[in-house]
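Standup notes, structure subgroup. Blocker cleared on the magnesium ion input:
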Amino acid sequence: MSEPLLVVDHMTKRFGGLVAVKDVSFSIRPGEILGLIGPNGSGKSTVMKSILGIHPPDGGSVKVDGTEVAGWAPHKIAQRGVGMVFQHSRPLHRQTVFENILLGLLPDRLTYLIPDAATERRAREIAEKVGLGHVLDRRPGTLPFADLRKMEIAKAIARNPRIVLVDEPFAGLTSRETAAFAQLIREMRDDGRAVLIVDHNVRSVAALVDRIYAMYVGERIAEGSVDDVLRDETVRRVYLGGALTVAARPESSFKDVDTPFLAVDKLDVFYGKAQALEDVSLKVHKGEFVAVVGLNGAGKTTLFNAISGLVPYSGAIKREGTALAGRSAAKVARGGIVQAPEGRDLFTEMSVRENLELGGARLTPEEREERLDWLYGLFPILKTRGKQNAGTLSGGEQQMLTIARALMMKPDMLILDEPTLGLAPVIMEQISKALEKLRQTTPLTVLLGEQNVTFALPHADRVYVLEHGRIVWEGDPSRFEADVGERYL
Ligand SMILES: Nc1ncnc2c1ncn2[C@@H]1O[C@H](COP(=O)(O)OP(=O)(O)OP(=O)(O)O)[C@@H](O)[C@H]1O
Ligand SMILES: [Mg+2]
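Run returned:
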């Protein structure tokens, strides 16, 4: 067996009083993929950032091919052959896709360099390999989500690292895109690189990795083969959780049949010349949970933004019979239709508690305390992190805060746009249970946008499928699988 390329030994990282990573040790050989799993906030991203020197470790050692690099500056560590595929794409927006990839191929000491033909050819090859060949001349801002993720991989391949750290590559991707991405990562391994990957898509991680290291509150809880770790009692309890089982209620059980709580009628939305929504009609009854299922770019967010008063439209949107057109977004929200947006939209420089209090600004002090208590029961981590800046929360913690802040407003209707993005399975189960409790004990109405149908279906009383801006199917969740399931499951 070859020597490990990356050796992490008793690594520790603190943020003030919080020990985000404690005594973590593992090694990865060339041609090996190690999966790093754990609940939200367990320290996975911090492990990666500490290896790369972005958050230099406070203790322990990081060896790259035998050389101690702990404490080095990130660019020095990168020069040693460590690359990271970040969860959030950070492209250079004024450069084309081709130029973005090309930059990764140029030696970083030279600030001005005219690439030769061979370098350009290599950039094209990489673009082809990741499936960006047809968009080389586009600017990143115009690309769909999955293509932006591909560009991050392409940039990483261009830099030719021997050790690749990949943070949540599958979040927000469809199953087909996930499979294509997994194949790219497999090829990195087959090229003899050492790969460390974090993702909450357990099935895809299990199919890809050679071994798993599982963490909980900064520490190792299990390590070994995929089967052993996923069967581990502690891992099941703190990370995987149980299965979701719920049942839909028939439409006839809702009383507002003639004038539903929300009625969207023949909605059209244009961005410039591009039509984002075409002839979209749907209704949501009071107390009903309705799911809008659709892939990236299908138009879910546009639909929700139209309802929330954030984008202009033609057609009608009515709440209990009254048209909402012309109302400001603030007025729609004050009226009780509240959106927990995709991409979070938190006040990053304010604390967790301040973000929540802003959500509850219109409640009486007693109502606010009561609501906070209830939300802390739902998301205990938000209570313990009350003073932390929202911007420094882990990916999943930010997602929880977004949902909690929307619930603080005591909405009549809650619009959840991709709430499961980046959440650990056990948290999805928690949110799932919370939604179920809300469904049974309150008149809350929910409009849920998801491409994760495994999460959406169990909660939905009815489902709409949105494709390319049009509703192509509507019906009962029990018929979903037979009718349109093959495209989504
Ligand atoms: N700069 C910071 N200041 C204070 N706390 C931080 C900072 N960065 C991260 N943390 C905290 O450290 C813990 C670990 O965060 P990390 O981002 O590593 O989690 P994670 O395992 O990647 O979670 P997720 O799956 O949700 O992305 C979290 O509780 C987070 O709130
Ligand atoms: Mg993370």
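Discussed briefly. The chain has two domains: 6-240, 251-336+411-488.
Next: hand off to the docking folks.
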